[in-house]
Amino acid sequence: MDNFNNEQKHLKLGNIYRDSGRNDLALKEFESIIKIDPQNEAAWLELGKTYKMMNRCPDAIEKFIQAVRINPNNKEALMELGGTSRISNNCERAMKEFKEVIGRTLNNEYAHIELSKIYQKIGSFDLALEELRKAYAINQYNSEIFVGFGQVYKAKGQNEEAIGKFKEALKIDPDNKNAHVELGKIYQGQKNYEAAIKEFKSAIRIDPSDKQLHLNLVQLYTKQNEYDSSNKEAQVLLQLIPNDQFSQDAMLNEIEIFQGKTILRSKVKRLWVTLTTRCNIRCRTCGLWSSPWEIPRKTVDEVIELFPYLERVVWLGGEVFLYKFFEELFQKANVFPHLQQQIITNGVILTEEWIKKIVEAGAELTISVDGVTKDVYEYIRTGASFEKLIKNIKLAQDLIQKYHSETKMRLNAVIMKSNYHQLEEFLDFANEFGFEQVSLMALHFDEDPEENIFYSKKDFRSLEYITNTVPKIRQKAKAYDIDLDILLPTEDLKFDRFENNNYPAQPQQETLHCKMPWKYMFICDKGTVYLTGSCLKSIGNIYNNSLDEIWNGPEAQIYRESLLKNQFQDLCRPECMTRWEI
């Protein structure tokens, strides 16, 4: 009895800590339960949910698997395992587990349903339908099975068959929220807005707290020019949000996107700030260091005023640690729990003192590594020490482990003539040294034209090698569980569609291809401001206007208006547009 009471106490405390954002303390409470009773499925389940909230999906999946192994009929654990595996693209692990569950339990319809969703995620529609038929044979009156059939047919583009299945689900259970939502999405795609509104309203009646459904209504009323109804729905939605500056402004931002606003009351959400062009090394492909510049104090104060509204701020240079006000900015930003800081550095200048500050703050640390061997690295990054780089990376990882920090390590690599042959090795290097993300970018600077194989001196032999290697590094990233971000204009990424401003004409879409002009802003050297680093046109300069004025200036409005119309010519870098699959 005492053990039971202790477990309940830990469980209650863990949920309180998690709800308040203290995930580290929540983990300790749930782990305490498992020490008392390793077979406590609820503790494993809550542990998985906590890791999921921390975006540590592989850890979450392992915890959900433990819960499922203790009780294969735990519906919530099965659904969490399936859902987390799908959003993190870690389907193979979950697929294996669901098959084992089905093999050792009888009539487990939810294991079949979740396995079907995994098959649907990877495009194996016939296998998905087969699993749903098996679930149907177990229970003909489970409305979620019909929702599953509908989702597969919808994914296959068979909308009429999908509509029929969703309606069958509602005959069994008129309060099946998922069926109403899926019908609403199909009707919205068919521009049958009245029918879509009806379905979303039905879903809201079942779950009034679903913010996305209210946003859908905001958008649909706007499309029908029912602006009063759209604004009323927006007010209902804002009442569902915590009454603090950050949360209210974040939701206002989403509302303004769904209403197609080009002049915004909401503030920027993600801000990139170039602090200085000063640097301790002399990269042969970068000329920033040759033109001394620092962001003025006036703009520093404007950036600080935005902290209550920002979800992410990225500090970059030059080298950020050479900027006189950086520590002040870092410490002031660290006060806001919703604000994720990301530092981009060459890593060589890092000190143990600074690494400790970064790790204790849970800031993200991005290190620019343009070569994974001493000869290539030091050839490109003149004045840098490969040994010093490795020492600092290891130190950062050691301190992350020591303090159980949420700090993530990211690796940036600019691809050029001298290092393109190391593409696969970048993934091996990242895996060896604990990087969770790798970003591969094309060289845009012309300081050394011979190195620019993408633009200045297009090297078709190199591009062919890169094109053939990209699928291999995608596989490596998947095997290593590394988030791979590729911004390389290669054939593999269908770059040819956009070369020489050959932008395909686009019909009006129900959803935006890109929300960045409503969320992002990038302050570059000499005060030039872009919406993002992938935008071709500047939207202003900090020496001419304040950040608030630039945010709603005519150039920013043009970007928003153009993207609402799906017009991208002369506005967007081709390698960014390839992400949209247009």
Sheet/helix structural class: alpha/beta
Question: DSSP strand (E) fraction?
Answer: 5-15%
Query: What is the helix content?
Result: 40-55%
Which shape, going by the Cα principal axes?
Answer: globular
Distance between the termini: 61 Å
Average pLDDT, to the nearest integer? 91
Biggest sheet layout: 10 strands, mixed
Radius of gyration: 26 Å
How many strands in all? 12
Query: How is the largest sheet built, in terms of strand order?
Result: 9-8-7-5-4-3-1-10-11-12
Count the DSSP helices: 26
Description:
By secondary structure, the chain is of the alpha/beta class. 54% of the residues lie in helices and 9% in strands. It contains 26 helices and twelve strands. The protein has helices at 2-19, 23-36, 41-53, 57-70, 75-87, 91-104, 109-121, 125-138, 143-155, 159-172, 177-189, 193-206, 211-223, 227-239, 245-258, 297-306, 326-333, 352-361, 374-380, 386-402, 423-432, 460-480, 516-519, 547-551, 554-564, 574-577; strands at 270-274, 282-283, 312-316, 340-345, 364-368, 381-382, 409-415, 437-442, 483-487, 520-523, 528-530, 540-541. A ten-stranded mixed sheet has the order 9-8-7-5-4-3-1-10-11-12. The chain has a two-stranded antiparallel sheet with strand order 2-6. Helix 18 crosses helix 20 (386-402).
Q: Topology, pairings included?
A:
Blueprint: H1 2-19, H2 23-36, H3 41-53, H4 57-70, H5 75-87, H6 91-104, H7 109-121, H8 125-138, H9 143-155, H10 159-172, H11 177-189, H12 193-206, H13 211-223, H14 227-239, H15 245-258, E1 270-274, E2 282-283, H16 297-306, E3 312-316, H17 326-333, E4 340-345, H18 352-361, E5 364-368, H19 374-380, E6 381-382, H20 386-402, E7 409-415, H21 423-432, E8 437-442, H22 460-480, E9 483-487, H23 516-519, E10 520-523, E11 528-530, E12 540-541, H24 547-551, H25 554-564, H26 574-577
Parallel strand pairs: 1-3, 1-10, 3-4, 4-5, 5-7, 7-8, 8-9
Antiparallel strand pairs: 2-6, 10-11, 11-12
Helix pairs in contact: 1-2, 1-3, 2-3, 3-4, 3-5, 4-5, 4-6, 5-6, 5-7, 6-7, 7-8, 7-9, 8-9, 9-10, 9-11, 10-11, 11-12, 12-13, 13-14, 18-20, 21-22
